[in-house]
Amino acid sequence: MHPQLLARHPQALPPGTTISRARGGRGPAGGDAVAVLGVPQHPARRADLVAQQAALLAAGGGPSAARENAAAELQQAATGGPTATARGTVRRECSVIADPPAGVVSPTPSRGTLKVNEPNRNDQSRSEPTMRLAAQRRDLILAAVRANGVVRLADLVDQLGVTVVTVRRDVTALADRGLVARVHGGVTMPRHGEPQAVVRTWQALPSQGLSGPALSGQALSGHVLSGHVLPGQASGQAPPGHVLVGMVAPSEDYYWPAVIQGAQAAVGAGGGRLALRTSCYHAAEDRRQVITLLDRGVQALLVAPSTDGPAGVDLMRWLGALPVPVVLIERVPPPELPTIGLDAAVTDHALGAGLAVRHLATLGHRRVGLVVSRPSPHHEAIRSGWREAVTSLDLRPAPVVEVPPFGSADWPAVCDDVLDGCVRAGVRALLVHADREAIGLVERARDRGPAVPDELAVVSYDDEVAAAADPPLTAVRPSKHRLGALAAQLALARVADPLDRPVHRVALWPSLTVRESCGTPRHHSA
Question: Where is the HTH deoR-type domain (predicted)?
Answer without folding.
Answer: 134-189
